[in-house]
Amino acid sequence: MNKRSILLILLVFCYITVNAQETTTTRDNAGLRGDAGAISGFFQTFNPLNYPSGAREWWHLLDVRHSNPANNYAMQFSGSFFDQNLWFRKTNQNPAQPWLRVVTENEGKVTLGNLNIVGAGASISSDNRSLTEGNFVIRANTGGRTVDKGASLEFALPSAPEGSADWGQARIITVAGNTNNSDATGKMILGTRRMFNKYGKGDQWYYGDDLVVDGIGNIGIGTFSPKEKLSVNGRVRAKEIMVENENWPDYVFEEGYKINTLSELEQYIKINKHLPEIPSAQKVKENGIELGEMNSLLLKKIEELTLHLIDQQKKIDQQGRQIDQLLTK
């Protein structure tokens, strides 16, 4: 906690000590209105009402109220008898106004609102956020396993000069990969803020699924359901791509390798409209191609074509010699 915050709280306590009643009395309802008898002072209760969420049994209450009983604005501090948490709220005429936990510090471990930031080896949990033994955990507000609801971490920029009115710019969202319990998986989605219908009926914001990591380690860019280790729905540009292949077709040049004759190739092409081992246009459209495998197949066809060219050249040379012999007779 910074020094200014500590000083402010101390001044509030000093003010109440000097100006309020000298004894602590019982008030069960922290939301009691001034026109119903609420006054400034120190209070306690065993039956807390309108205290911080989950409050039960013994609680303290420090109440600072307006001098006019009809004015139901109040500044309140509260805390359980049994822990070191301190809670704060300004009622703003709302008896059920939510409470916020105050920044506190203990041995270098800082707690801010409902978010715990603590040192290594700690084990603290609060509401939907927790930090346990150095691991920061963000929990969703909903229970059960659904594929469309989960926990999110949002990055925002203020839209006002003084730093208020945050506008979310990007999110990391985690949802269930499936609804099973026996083989449950998760999915992480990284998305930036988008606008659509900008020039139509109104501006509507949503977060895109720019990058998805599913439960088996597949990554999708521009696709919500990647089927490969990396699925990209769009163009990819790179300086260099390294593709590994353990079946490079040098075996085509080994002794005993049999290739189809040109007449056999002609017959196959007439029937299938593509080369042997090469996928058809329809299959490529449906399934794409594996870059390493396709390069290997194309090289194989080039090597087979080279063998055909060598064979044809031998025949041409032989025919040339035969023609020369005929011409010299």
Quaternary organisation of the protein chains: single chain
Note the beta-strand portion: 25-35%
Unreliable runs, pLDDT <50, ≥5 residues? 111-132
Radius of gyration: 37 Å
Q: What is the mean pLDDT?
A: 79
* First-to-last CA distance: 112 Å
User: For the report, how would you describe the main beta sheet?
Assistant: 7 strands, mixed
Helix content estimate: 10-25%
How many individual β-strands?
A: 19
- Summing up helix and strand content along with how strands pair, one would put the structural category as alpha+beta
Query: What form results from the Cα inertia axes?
Result: rod-shaped
The structural domain count equals: 3
Protein name: Endosialidase-like protein
Keywords: Signal
Signal peptide: 1-20
Organism: Pedobacter cryoconitis
SSE layout:
Elements: H1 3-19, E1 25-26, E2 41-45, E3 59-65, E4 74-80, E5 87-90, E6 100-101, E7 104-106, E8 109-112, E9 115-117, E10 123-126, E11 129-132, E12 135-138, E13 150-158, E14 166-176, E15 186-196, E16 204-207, E17 211-213, E18 219-221, E19 230-232, H2 262-272, H3 281-287, H4 291-327
Parallel strand pairs: 1-2, 18-19
Antiparallel strand pairs: 2-3, 3-4, 4-5, 5-6, 7-8, 8-9, 10-11, 11-12, 13-14, 14-15, 15-16, 15-17, 17-18
